[in-house]
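Worked example 4.2. Below are the chains of a multi-component assembly; read each line carefully before continuing.
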Amino acid sequence: MQGVLLGGQYALLACGLSLIFGVMRIVNLAHGVLAVLAAYLTLVLVQQGLPLWLATVVVVPLFAALGYAVQRGLFNPALAQVGRDPADGPRGAGELAPLLVSFGVAVALTNLLQEVFSADTRTIPTGGLASAGLPVGSLSVGVLPLLTLAVAASVIATVQLLLARTSTGRAMRAVADDAGAAAMTGVDPRHMYAVATALAFATLGLAGVFVGMSTQFSPGYGELVLLFAFEAVIIGGLGSLWGTLAGGMVLGLAQTIGAQTDPQSGVLAGHLVFLAVLVVRPGGLMPRSVQE
Amino acid sequence: MSDAGAARAATRTITRGGRGSLAGGGVLLVVVVLLAAVVPYVVTLGALSSLVMLFALVILGTTWNLLAGYGGMVSVGQQAYVGVGGYALIQLADAVGAPLWLAVPAAGLVGAAIALPTSYLVFRLAGGYFAIGTWVVAEVFRLVTMRIDGLGGGTGLSLSAFRGTDRVERVAFVYWFALALMVAVVLGTYLLMRSRVGLGLTAIRDDRVAASSLGVAVDRGRRLVYVAGSGGAALAGALVALSTLGVTPGSIYSVSWTAAMIFIVVVGGIGTIEGPLVGAVLYWALQQALAPLGTWYLVVLGAVAVAVVLLAPRGLWGLVAGRYQLFPTGYRVRGVPPGAAVAPRADG
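Applying the procedure described above to all two chains together yields the following structure tokens:
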């Protein structure tokens, strides 16, 4: 039960990773540390006396704006190097460019956070929300994990609806399929990419707040966040947001069961389940079934 | 073809290297001789130890470049093999009792041997997902190592093979040994890239499908690069363990090794043999100069790497490589007027 609920948090984290990859084929290695940045921002705002819900309302749009800026300033120039014909001019990192840029951001940001906030672990004070429980039969279910799962499910549903039903979503899917053709119909791919990243960063900011409330985090924690989100995506199957939710739950279950046999092997059990899925079902549990 | 065209064709020469490369190679040879014969007698023991770290960084950069620059695979998990190399060295030297000059290359072989089965797993992922997949594998290596009591659990191991050896003698041995290994790895990479295999690898990097249709064994080539690159990382890990006299799982399996490799290759110039040399010297110098400021140097390094990828994608070496090549791997057609023909450049 606990494991399934933990999956909600991983799915929420994985949502943005999946979205950026789906639209732009960029794997954002700074994903985890950005979530931790959101947690630190929220913590600072709460310490300034803002109520938690208001801090969240501030951080999420701030992250959306950050996402737009990062895409226009860093990822778009990096993408411009992808697919450049070697005969056209100096060939550099080529298609590795976005990956390398995001790794540079991750290294710089992690150590910046470490210098500013030190390596001590922190947690966002929730006023008892993190420890509150709901009795279900003989079990007690945490209110915060339940809330996280509900938020994850509604974020995924919203993103799906946005992609499927709105004109922006249509344009985004068009750009993802063929940026050149989309540009001919009057869609600006660079703007569309930035909107997609803004959306992804908004979900990431929200995820960061929930991570900050439920766990002890430090600047280095971003590394684990990235790995967990990534494992949820692969276990669930690439390109399927609901699959990611399922993948997050599988990962959460594996970690919880692993931790019950030995408190130190929870993370290892999660990694091993991920590798097992890679061997047995490389396409994930729900491959591309509900992409559109 | 017109007469003029024929005349032009007749004046073309296909060259590899040239006077510049010979001169540059001579300079490098002088540098190596200086490092081997003069430097150990004029600097302190502490400086020698830190030079050993520079040699290890050159090996790390060169082998990561083999993966990313020539194989097109960005691995963020090479610290897995740095760790394996470190642990293998200590086990081979202390538990098995192998002489150190044999244990270090053997540790490299252990890394390569472990990389072979691992490659079947991580090759199921492509591009960016390959990057994070290798990272997960490295974490698994670290967590499993920490659970094995014979490997010291969470506290690590220390090397006892040097017990009773004079400190000067020990540092001098490690220094010369590391220098020799670095020269061997760089030369070996150069010879590999000059060979038929290297030409195939370059083709795979530029266009995998086209290379495959021309009969290049794509999977075999990538696997070879992964195994060789991982063996090199293990070699560097063994040198680090030899120089620091021990390993702890937290530091020898740290992702900062891979961060260093990426910085060295990207800033020096990806896809060239000279680039990692330049990058390693720069990384090492920055680390030495900014170390008193804590981790700020990593903030600077991350920002510099981003700037180089975006503004000077061929790296520092790329800014001069148009004119010079110390390690000429590709052939070049000379005597072609600019824009008259497409000269295929295999060097990139």
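Take a moment to check your reading of the output against the notes. The first helix of chain B runs from residue 3 to 11. Chain B has a mean pLDDT of 82.
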